[in-house]
Amino acid sequence: MKKLICISLYEDLSMTTYDLSEVDNVELIGIVENASEGTLFVFTCDRPNGSSVIMCPGGGFLKTNLENEGIDFTEWFTKLGITYIVFKYRMPRGNPDVPEQDIRLALKVVREKFPEFCDKLGVMGASIGGYIAATAATLYHGTDRADFQILLYPVISMTDQLTHLPSRCRMLGENIPEAEKKDFYEMDIASGGITRGFMAKHCHLYFKIEDKIRRHLQCCFTLYQVPKEKQDAVIDAVLEVDLQSIAQKLIEDTIVQAHRGFEAVMTTKEGKKA
């Protein structure tokens, strides 16, 4: 029987268990959205293989995208026998230690509470959640460290040229003097629209991906005060590339590689048991 086990990391590790056969999708979304920050949502399998992964959704440190970058992956992982855990981490609100404390504690609690699922315990992250996941997989040591990582369009740098500026500002409390809040929010919206535009066909019908890319680049260039004529030249050059086909190929290749990777892990595990 598949279950959802909710664990509150900062409320005495209180646990609530749901029978997923009795919870519809609307109720499930309500459970995760209404839970407090610092909650783990553990989705169990019918036939667990001893592996598990903690998913850190994106959201620009403004919120956590618990549905499309969280629970939507549940079925794919649990069918493979992998215990899937969605993490509703705390917002840093200017304190960069918060995300690192959260993922370190999440790994510790999962290993202590569910050792039967932790032969291999990995981390996965999308967007700024990729920053949290990469931290756990590269900077920690010993039992604090994840066994593997899966990063989806991650924010893995805080340098001006590479980072997602709104996320960095919300984590570090920094700001760009010439920029206003509306500039960051608009860039957030444009960036999210591009990501979803490659993955959701319905969005593409009403707001074409080329328009989203143009708007996102305009927002970025405005923040860095790039002259208008240079903006137009770069944007036009980018839009001459068949980005839709490139994105589709990347998605297909990633899915194939993910399947091969998990098959290899499972084959190795079975070989060791034999």
Produce the secondary structure layout.
Elements: E1 3-8, E2 15-19, H1 25-34, E3 39-43, E4 51-56, H2 74-79, E5 83-88, H3 97-113, E6 120-126, H4 128-138, E7 149-152, H5 165-172, H6 181-199, H7 201-206, H8 209-223, H9 228-239, H10 243-273
Parallel strand pairs: 4-5, 4-6, 6-7
Antiparallel strand pairs: 1-2, 1-3, 3-5
Helix pairs in contact: 3-4, 6-8
Q: What report would you give on this structure?
A:
With about 270 residues, the chain is α/β, with parallel strands linked by helices. It has a domain at about 1-175: Rossmann fold, CATH 3.40.50. Helices cover about 50% and strands about 15% of the residues. The chain is built from ten helices and seven strands. A seven-stranded mixed sheet has the order 2-1-3-5-4-6-7. Helix 3 crosses helix 4 (about 130-140) and helix 6 (about 180-200) packs antiparallel against helix 8 (about 210-225). About 30% of the residues are buried. Mean pLDDT is about 80; it is low at about 195-200.
